[in-house]
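Quick log. Single chain, no ligands specified.
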Amino acid sequence: DFGMRALKSILVRAGALRRTYGSTRSESILALSALNDVNLPKFTANDIPLFLGITGDLFPGVEMPPSDYGVLIVQLEGSACGLGLQPKESFVRKCIQLWETIMVRHGLMLVGQTISGKTEVENVLAAALAAVADGERYLPVQLHKINPKSI
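-> predicted structure:
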């Protein structure tokens, strides 16, 4: 999607990364990180290799440094265990993707198959953010569920 909303989200994310890392990371790495952060959560498992191939062609030789989520990863795992869930790597990754999406968009929908973990990802992320809230990078969230037919 290359509409104005999608481009704005990428630019907002790139700006946030620039403020976070300053001049310690190259613009190519920041641009690629912003593209990945905004787009990867929207793709299916089959589409991700295609997207990574395209970005690899656009940014040849750019190596992505690992992201540092530090305390959030630990708290996501703890919150998952506290809710009686197993904190598998794929589940924690989905929680991180949801958090990154929340940081660049003002609204979102979680869609997927029944019993695929949408509500649990939401609940674990909310619990983890409440526990690590520092007022800057991590903000507490309040969940408000609405009936989609009321909109």
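The two ends are 25 Å apart (CA to CA).
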